[in-house]
Amino acid sequence: MLAAAARSGVVITGPANARNSVRIEQCCGCRAAVRKGARLVQAQASSSSSADGEERRKTEIRRTTRSWRMNSNGGSRAAGLTYKDAGVDIDAGAELVRRIAAMTPGIGGFGGLFPFGDSYLVAGTDGVGTKLKLAFDLDIHDTIGIDLVAMSVNDIVTSGAKPMFFLDYFATSRLDVDQAEQVIKGIVEGCKQSDCVLLGGETAEMPDFYAEGEYDLSGFAVGSVKKDALIDGKNIKVGDQIVGLASSGVHSNGFSLVRRVLAKSGATLRDPLPDADVTIGEALLAPTVIYVRQVLDILSRGGVKGIAHITGGGFTDNIPRVFPSGLGAHVKVGGWHVPPIFKWIQKAGGVEEAEMFRTFNMGIGMVLVVSPEAAEEIVSTSNNACILGHVVEGEGVTYGR
Questions:
Q1: Is the pTM of the predicted complex or chain greater than 0.85?
Q2: φ, ψ of residue 368 in degrees (nearest 5)
Q3: Is the distance from CB of 100 to CB of 34 less than 8 angstroms?
Q4: Which of 63, 87, 279, 310 could form a disulfide linkage to 361, CB 3.0–4.6 angstroms apart?
Q5: Where are the beta strands (DSSP E) in 56-118?
Q6: Across the strands, what pairs with 71?
Q7: How far apart are CA 172 and CA 187, in angstroms?
Q8: CB contact at 8 A, 369 and 322
Q9: Which domains occur in the chain, in start order?
Q10: How do residues 249-285 score in pLDDT, each as one tens digit?
Q11: CB-based contacts of 161, cutoff 8 Å, min separation 6
Q12: Nearest CA to 164 among 90, 243, 220, 230?
């Protein structure tokens, strides 16, 4: 298959079955190593890059020590719906990551690094999971492309990389040109928001493979960062501040659990969302925020040591991925606005708070670990930023009020 030939005339040769990633539905906390490509650093990398990659693997793929201390009365109860009940096993995904890492050392970041002169090319790939099911149900297709771009470019910007170009893959059983046009419209908008070029893509018509009117999407982004500007978390220390950037809602992870909650509750996508002026469907389909411009602007001011994109695995599994061994995060719950959609999911599904924080972004789509001085400046100059907590000795994430 000649990727991109269908729409741009750009021909990228290579075997059609070559794969840089393994797709897991709604993915685990270690999503990057599984879905984000990253097997790009191979024989071409220098021996020093290989050593750096090995250390990165040891740091980022270690199993997270999870601690849930919501209050002095004890931990969370084992009740209510879970992500695993909905068919997504985060621990199984983490185990697959461990096995992949044993075969291809050097993976584990939110994006894959490839040495290129005095820079790294940073690559990522992703989809939008079963959020597509909601787009099908509501017959709204012009924003799902924004989600597709966001999931990849938000990952690669965690390394400090500026996205350069994006490619997409659109597959369906029978091509509906009007529907596909709406999807691509969203992809174009996502590329505009992230200041990157839609370089091309592949449209695959596969009779009998998908249900009538349905399709699947994948996206691929490549960016670049100077080696001396790479954000890798190695300088994080106790006392550094953890700053969160607000999300627009659920973004593009956790929808297997969302759909299970919908089924259990008996609610429909067109029902009004409590404590909001939108429907449940409108809140759930809100496009993923693209943080590229804001993050790059913050980086230009200095003081940023690590960045985590909060996707599948939530706070609990994603924040620790940027820390050196022996350090963890203490998050003060209640210090930021949690959108009404999360409160509805928790109540309607009887989902425990610990499960919410390990599945959803809970209103924070991007986390930056920064110096105390940088934290003050970021919060004072951004209308969507807040201090979530601080870096502590230990591993994993602890929660307090």
A1: no
A2: -120, 135
A3: yes
A4: 310
A5: 112-116
A6: 74
A7: 17
A8: yes
A9: 31-73+89-229 (3.30.1330.10), 241-400 (3.90.650.10)
A10: 999 999 999 999 999 999 999 999 999 999 999 999 9
A11: 111, 120, 122, 223, 224, 225
A12: 220
